[in-house]
Write a structure and sequence with these properties.
The complex is a heterodimer of chains A (about 130) and B (about 110).
Chain A: E1 3-6, E2 10-12, E3 18-25, E4 33-39, E5 45-52, E6 58-60, E7 68-73, E8 78-83, E9 92-103, E10 109-117, E11 121-125
Parallel strand pairs in A: 2-11
Antiparallel strand pairs in A: 1-3, 3-8, 4-5, 4-9, 5-6, 7-8, 9-10, 9-11
Chain B: E1 9-12, E2 18-23, E3 35-39, E4 46-49, E5 63-68, E6 71-76, E7 85-93, E8 98-101, E9 105-109
Parallel strand pairs in B: 1-9
Antiparallel strand pairs in B: 2-6, 3-4, 3-7, 5-6, 7-8, 7-9
Classes of the chains: A mainly beta (about 130), B mainly beta (about 110).
Chain lengths: ~130, ~110
Amino acid sequence: QVQLEQSGAEVKEPGASVKVSCKASGSIVTDFYMHWVRQAPGQGLEWLGWINCKNGDRDFAKKFLGRVALTRDTSSSTVYMELSRLRSDDTAVYYCARLTDYYDSSGAYNGGAFDIWGQGTTVSVSS
Amino acid sequence: QSMLTQPPSASGTPGQRVTISCSGRNSNLGTNGVVWYQQFPGTAPKLLIYPHDQRPSGVPDRFSGSKSGISASLAISGLQSEDEADYFCAAWDVSLNGWVFGGGTKLTVL
C-alpha cells in the first residue's frame, strides 16, 4: 500500500525559506508524478506544481514561479518542496499528492487525479 | 478567488439526496474531466470521484458524479451523518497549464 509521509510542522519568519519533505513507501517513487497542493486556514485548495520523479522534469503554477523549487532523491524515495521569500499569506498546510492517470476500457485517456496524499505539513509564517 | 465555482454550503437530512455543483470554463471543465475530493477537518483530502465519473474502490456507490459542458455535479444519495465533510471539485486547466480547484462546499447533515 502506497503511503506518503511528510515532515513536521515549521514556523518561519517572513523572508525565510522552508523545505518540506515527502517520503514514499510501498512503491517505487520513480513511477510517480508528485504534485504539491496547499490549503490556507479555512480556505480551499491551491496547486503549486509537480515533479516527474523519474527524470526530474517539473512545472509550477505561474504564481509561484521563481519562489518554489521541487527536487527528489530517488535513493530515499523522497520528494522535497522548498518555498522561499516566505510571506504571512504562505501560512498553510502543504500536501504532497501522487497523480494517477486513468484510462477507459479501450485504453483512451480519461484524465488524472490525486489518489494518494501525504498527511500535510503546517507551515506558519509570522514575525 | 477559485477558478471553479462551488456553493459554500449544502445540507440535507439523513436518507436524503443532495447535489453539489461545480462550474468552470472551457479551459478546464469544458476540456477535461472533473475530480471530486472529500475532506474531514484536520485531515488530507481523499479522492472520491475520478474521470469519468468513476469511484475508487472503497467509495460507496451512494456517491456519483456527472459533467455536462462546463458544469459538473456530485450527488450523494441516502445521506448519512458520516458524509458531513467538505467537498472540492478539481480539473486540469489547459490555459493555466495547472490544476484548479473549487472553493469547497461544506456539507451539513441535519
